[in-house]
Amino acid sequence: MHRITRVVLLGSTILLVAACAKSETPATDTTTAAMAPAPAPAPAPLSLADVAGKWQMTNVPMSGTDTSPTNFVLTATADTTGWVMEFPNGLKVPLTVHHLGDSIHTIAGPFASQLRKSTKVRTESTMRLQDGKLVGTTTARYDTKGADSVLQLRGSGTRMP
């Protein structure tokens, strides 16, 4: 083999190896990193002492033709005991309370429904303190058969003096 052929062949091999080799540092894409929004801050934890007292509550169905509100007074304590819903007709319903982070979860019932006469209901609610109001959702499960045995309600309440 001639000397020039060897040099050309060696040079081509070096160029081919260099072209196929991976670079040590990958290219950085600065466009997506600069545009990514900062993650939202975690909600502040809620103390049950923050909501202790009496609240005028209103729950309204989220769907359906009947949008009649259910009004009651919620008595909240600084711990998970002694929570009660009191309806305008005098019915008092004790609540089981679970507290986690920024949310309060309550379970009640079965008790006499305030919307559906002669029907028992169980409720589960999740509430948060937002701008000085208690807001959240309630799922009511009625002791009936059929498609309308579950009702979703949106609730809000203001602290009573």
Kindly estimate the percentage of residues that lie in beta strands according to DSSP: 35-45%
Question: How many helical stretches?
Answer: 3
Please tell me the CATH architecture of the domain at 48-159 by its name.
Beta Barrel
Shape: globular
Note the run of SSEs as H and E.
Answer: HHHEEEEEEEEE
Commentary on this structure:
The chain has 161 residues and is α+β, with helices and mostly antiparallel strands. It has helices at 3-20, 30-35, 48-51, and strands spanning 53-61, 70-76, 84-86, 92-94, 96-100, 103-112, 120-130, 133-142, 150-159. The chain has a domain at 48-159: Lipocalin (Beta Barrel). The chain contains 3 helices and 9 strands, in the order αααβββββββββ. Strand 2 and strand 3 (84-86) form a beta hairpin. The chain starts with a helix and ends with a strand.
